[in-house]
Amino acid sequence: MTRRYVALNEDGRPIGQYHHNATVPEVLVSRCRDLREEQGLSYGAIARMLGLKRSYVQKVCNYEIRAQQAHGWRRLAEADRPAT
């Protein structure tokens, strides 16, 4: 059994893909930033490639959103875990 943990901000609230308003998984956020920083692709090209809005990709790549650092961790309750 794999234990999953949720990153928490300084106020103890979930951040990243476990935030209640998050719609994009962390893997896509990282992919956006990698494509922009390592390959220099445009926001539009990344958006088309990943099926996201260009404005969202721009905000992610400029660290305007999804940029909080984890200040703590909480084990994800069994009921909160996504079905596998």
List the defining traits of the structure above.
single chain; 84 residues; alpha+beta; Arc Repressor Mutant, subunit A; two-stranded antiparallel ribbon
Helix content: 25-40%
Give a quick account of the main beta sheet: strands, pairing sense, barrel closure: 2 strands, antiparallel
Strand content: 5-15%
Derived structural class: alpha+beta
Q: CATH architecture, please? A: Orthogonal Bundle
Shape: elongated
* Uncertain parts: none
Q: What is the total domain count?
A: 1
What is the strand tally?
A: 2
Gyration radius, to the nearest Å? 14 Å
- Oligomerization category of the chains in this entry: single chain
Main β-sheet, spatial strand arrangement: 1-2
Q: H/E element string? A: EHHHE
CATH homologous superfamily annotation: Homeodomain-like
Q: Span from first to last CA?
A: 12 Å
Figure out the total of helices: 3
Q: What value does the average pLDDT take? A: 89
CATH topology heading: Arc Repressor Mutant, subunit A
CATH class: Mainly Alpha
